[in-house]
Amino acid sequence: MRILKILSIAAALAVGGGGLQAAETEKLYVECGGSFSGFVAKMKAQAEAMTYPPQVTDPFFGAANYLQRTINADRRQGIFNTDFIDFSRKLIAQYRLDKGRQNAQKYDAIFSRIEQELGVPRGILLSFWAFETDFGAFTGDFNTLDTLMTLSHDCRRPELFQPQVFAALELYARGQFSVNQQGAWAGEVGQVQMLPMDIMQRGYDGDGDGTVDLDNSVADSLFSGANMLRSFGWRPNEPWMQEVVVPDSMPWEESGVQPEDYRPVEEWAAWGVRPRSGSWQGPDLEAALMLPMGHEGPAFIIYPNYQALFEWNQSFVYVATAAYFATRLEGAPVYDPGNAPARLSDAEMKALQRKLVARGHDVGEVDGILGAGTRAAVQAEQERLGLPADAWPTRELLNRL
């Protein structure tokens, strides 16, 4: 499910006197494309230049195969082309709510330790655990080595995946990775879906047995997930989201989920924004107003911890849903769906993106996905045209453009 955002490794990572001394993200080690066998040979040569011995590189790279189904999965992420209401209703099934609450009780001691030691609440961990692998029920059936090598060979994003191959090689040299390892289509493994570089930096021995087993140990998985969130900037014991009610007179152009959209909670309150239930969870914090489907749909105040979730996954709709599900698991009511206009069709979204590009906006790829660039462009054009600048694309906006 994850859309990748991989951070740089600053620490040295070494095996004995040689091996991987430093792995950098967004680094192209060898030229992508060409024959796969030739690519494998170049990656192997690069590993040997990094002083990995043949007894490590021969079996590791000798086991690598091209995996077309990985490429197919990479090109097929249509689940993210949906809106928040449809996406959240699809993912937050009753069995996930029930199973989440059962696991909160079953592993209460583990969650309590994490909350005390790392300050990450159980709702957030349960949410990602649920969405990534259905609480460990299915961790993936793609060969991880094949997947990482295939995506490294593919010229779409090789700079993201080639460093992961060498991180996997490092783990293999340490006896902590198997060429038969199974995982997700993008190379993540284990119950909370971590990439090899994540495991090296943030893997956490939660059960104290001297190893980090993300496939079989719930404690290791949950502690590692919490440790990863902490490294992404999670602030201990602070809220992340709560549903709010907004007045019709709200200056909608002030809404958004980027860091520059945050302001003191008291300013939102002065505009008439109020919690839908209970009191403000972070009255002394800065917060942003998130309108996942515009000013007529659900409304949420998000706190600084929400930004850390974007380091886990880059999909707006995924993060919004995961954050909301976490609040449900911690007792929040079902959100008010409001009366948001229907999402544009894929063809309409692409047409809108092309019109935005023609007006000089950077929306990234014209792919029909309502990403950060498209939202910013929509909001700017709404404000220019005198429409409610809530970043939700409508047919009226499409027609006006």
TrEMBL record:
Asked if the record carries the keyword Metal-binding, the reply is: no
Q: Where is the Peptidoglycan binding-like domain?
A: 346-401
UniProt xrefs under InterPro entries: Lysozyme-like_dom_sf (IPR023346), MltB-like (IPR043426), MltB_2 (IPR011970), Peptidoglycan-bd-like (IPR002477), PGBD-like_sf (IPR036365), PGBDSf (IPR036366), SLT_2 (IPR031304)
- Name all Transglycosylase SLT domain ranges: 36-326
Name any one GO molecular function. Answer: peptidoglycan lytic transglycosylase activity
Q: Name one Pfam family in it.
A: PG_binding_1
**Listed GO biological process terms:** peptidoglycan catabolic process
According to the UniProt entry, where is the signal peptide?
A: 1-22
Query: Which key words tag this protein in UniProt?
Result: Signal
Cited PANTHER family: LYTIC MUREIN TRANSGLYCOSYLASE, MEMBRANE-BOUND LYTIC MUREIN TRANSGLYCOSYLASE B
- Please state what the protein is called: Peptidoglycan-binding protein
